[in-house]
């Protein structure tokens, strides 16, 4: 959590291997992303990390099921298995009846659910979500956060970036970032992590 320009998205890009740090190490699931080659970082992004972007980043001409299945193409899954996995994930996020719709036929909240299903497709160790409620209305944002809660309870790990306190308070821990530095860490759940 932090104000605009504080370094939140940069932190996600470093963890996800989209950027490389000028110093230090970035470890993801026991792998040093910062020391990895571009090909190794791409592999880590494809297997260890799922991304949920504020702007959804869906392919406009692909159906929901094709968008969700896209990461599995790069993993070498055959077409039938990809579609089965994608349909299952779309059902899990409440879009089982919208699998053949293209993004322009979906609401903002539905597009974000497709993006979440896509992030889950490779069963990553970590899901990075950059302002996932930023382009949806308040009610839809609450539904997306409820979905994150359900997915987290099922064993998925999320790192969510926001500048909104009510969104951050849904997490177990809030890391406050300002001017590219961690200012504090707040345990919200009261439990041990």
Description of the molecule:
The strands form 3 sheets. Strands 3-4-5 form a 3-stranded parallel beta sheet. Strands 1-2 form a two-stranded antiparallel sheet. A two-stranded antiparallel sheet has the order 6-7. The chain has one domain: P-loop containing nucleotide triphosphate hydrolases (Rossmann fold). It has 193 residues and is α/β, with parallel strands linked by helices. It contains 7 helices and 7 strands. Helices cover 39% and strands 16% of the residues. It has helices at 8-15, 38-47, 64-74, 79-92, 108-120, 138-153, 165-168, and strands spanning 27-28, 31-32, 49-52, 126-130, 158-161, 173-178, 181-187. The mean pLDDT is 90.
> Can you write the helix and strand succession as a string?
HEEHEHHHEHEHEE
Biggest sheet strand order reads: 3-4-5
CATH architecture label name = 3-Layer(aba) Sandwich
Mean pLDDT: 90
| Alpha-carbon Rg, integer | 17 Å
Which range does the strand content fall in?
15-25%
Largest sheet: 3 strands, parallel
Q: Supply the number of helical segments.
A: 7
Named CATH topology: Rossmann fold
Beta-strand segment tally = 7
**CATH class call:** Alpha Beta
Distance between the termini: 18 Å
